[in-house]
Structure formats: structure tokens, C-alpha cells
Amino acid sequence: MSVNPVIFDHPLIQHKLSFVRDKTTGTKEFRELISEIAALMCFEATRDLPLVESQVETPMGPCKTRVLCGRKLAVVPILRAGLGMVEGILSMIPLAKVGHIGLYRDHDTHLPVEYYSKLPADINERDVFVLDPMLATGGSAVDAITMIKQKGASSIHFMCIIAAPEGLEALSQAHPDVRVYCAALDECLNENKYIVPGLGDAGDRIFGTR
Ligand code: PRP
Ligand code: URA
Questions:
Q1: Residue 58 is a catalytic residue
Q2: For the residues of 87-136, what is the DSSP string, one character each?
């Protein structure tokens, strides 16, 4: 399923993505844009959530309405850069619980190294949205989703902003059940396993650490 990601080509998302990619965009604006794109992606990614008939009283009388039903939601950002997407998602789904998984890519091997994990106790009962702006080799996403599955979760979505073909392939091999949402599918990885053209180092640009 993941080899064919859902690519959000909505004009607002693509417009904001253009500024996110721009190397002259500063930390404050970059952080705001990542959050805004995440909110817009969330709006699209949740369009299939089930609804149930309800009823309220308007000032004019009874009104049939529809409200969300079904499983509760959790969002799990992959630290650090995934944190930049959390606020945007919570602006749309304020009752979602938030877990955290800490992974960094080793500079030499480019393989993910785990340093933190804290997930909601009832994650097995929730629809889970894993957040990370970048899907490069796919190593971080694959390991994070494996960790979440080990806690019993079975309904998992992966939301990124830019994906590389290599990462999509790795993710679909390891977790074919996970649906992937992105704003762009880029060309390739460079020799340092950065996405080209990409946006550079997402964590450094969000937190101003370079
Ligand atoms: C970045 C990014 C992803 C990972 C993607 O994190 O936010 O987590 O790299 O690369 P992959 O698909 O090849 O695993 P990084 O390791 O730079 O850590 P940081 O967010 O703490 O800067
Ligand atoms: N991590 C990033 O932040 N950017 C990339 O292009 C690849 C991995």
C-alpha cells in the first residue's frame, strides 16, 4: 500500500511547501509553515473517519447532525523534527493523545538510533498517526512503527511532508499495512542520504540548531 502514497497536491499545501523548501526561509517562518502544512494534511488524511448520526437542539429546534465515532486517535511524532507537526495536528484533533519516539540517524551509517519512547497506555485501541517531516531511507519510520506495533497498535498511518522513493519502498516492504501521506514525492537521496531536492535538515531548520 505504501509504495503508492497519498500525495496532497492541494494548492495551499503546495504553496506553503514552496516556502518551506526555500533555503532563505528563517526558523520562525519555517516552524510556522511546517505546523500549517501538518494541519492541512490532517484535514485531508482524516476525511474517511467514520461518523454516526446524532441530534442537537438549535435555538430553532431539533437538528439531525453527525459526529465522529469509532476508535480514538493518537499522534506519535518522531523526535525531533516530528514535533514540528504536532501542534498543527492538535489544532484539528485536540483530543488526540500524544506519544513520543526518539530516534536519530547515525552520521556515518545513516541508521536510526533509538533514545526515547513513551506511548499512551491504550495505544492498542487507537488509530495512530506517526509524524515526521522527512521520509528519506525510511529507517526511522520503519523502526518507529515497529516499536508502536510492539505495543499492540494495529491501525497506523504515516504522515510526512517530503518522501523519497527509497523510503517509500523500505516502508512498504517492512509495513505494507501502513498508509503513507505526503505533500511531495521527491527524486532521490544524495550520498549523505539527504532528500534531493528536499528541504535540508528538517530538525535543524525547525529548531535553529545549525
Ligand atoms: C531526520 C528526520 C527523520 C529521519 C529521516 O531526523 O526527521 O526522522 O532523519 O531519515 P531516514 O528516513 O533516513 O531514517 P534526524 O535523524 O536528522 O534527527 P533529528 O530530527 O533529531 O534532527
Ligand atoms: N533528514 C532530514 O532532515 N532531511 C533529509 O533530507 C533526510 C533526512
A1: no
A2: HHHHHH-TT-EE-EEEEEE-TTT--EEEEEEE--TTGGGEEEEEE-SEES
